[in-house]
Amino acid sequence: MFFASSFASGFGLAAALIVAVGAQNIFVLRQGLRQRHVAPVVAFCALSDLLLVSAGVAGIGMLLHTLPGLVRQLTWGMSLGGAVFLSWYGISAARRALAPGALVTGGAEGPDTLAGTMGRAAAFTYLNPHVYLDTVLLMGAVGGALPGGARPLFVAGAATASALWFVVLGYGARLLGPVFARPAAWRVLDSMVAAVMMVMAVVLAARSVGP
What we know:
- It is found in: Cell membrane.
- Its main location: membrane.
- It comes from Gluconacetobacter diazotrophicus (Acetobacter diazotrophicus).
- Keywords: Cell membrane, Membrane, Transmembrane, Transmembrane helix.
- This protein is mostly helical.
- About 80% of the residues lie in helices and about 0% in strands.
- The chain contains eight helices and no strands.
- The chain has helices at about 1-20, 25-35, 40-65, 70-100, 115-125, 130-145, 150-170, 185-210.
- Helix 2 runs antiparallel to helix 3 and helix 3 (about 40-65) crosses helix 6.
- The longest helix has about 30 residues, at about 70-100.
- Mean pLDDT is about 80; it is low at about 100-110.
């Protein structure tokens, strides 16, 4: 019963943290709507969460807690890099929203190679300080407080929640295909993407220059 509750704790905490409107989720949703490289993007995001949660539970969270200077340095670097990347992506989304010819599911976004897509997936995942705060620090602290035998189940529960979420987000998006068959729907989506990305970029930029 105790070990089952450890799995449930990991699952519930991960589900609560991951189901939120953010840069990574929006990216996965858009790839699902466009039906481009969905499987590798979903797999990459799920495996990244598994890696980060595992690292946190294994002790990185405790290490960062004992070295607050390292936390500040990592947060500053990731905030600045994330602000630059999100600004670029937000501007790109705004340009798509203003150009009717770009609003098609086939993707008139330029070369949509697997390498380019995975590069963007990596940036959305690893340039976001909140990812580290949620997975490494928060989940690492909760999972690390459990007895040694329960920790793998906590990580398994978190990884299961993450994998299910990204599968639903990536592959469930195609159910909205009829809606996004119209250019106007893509215009609205890209406008929302641009707004979210730019707001997040401003927040990260402010954090990078703050005290």
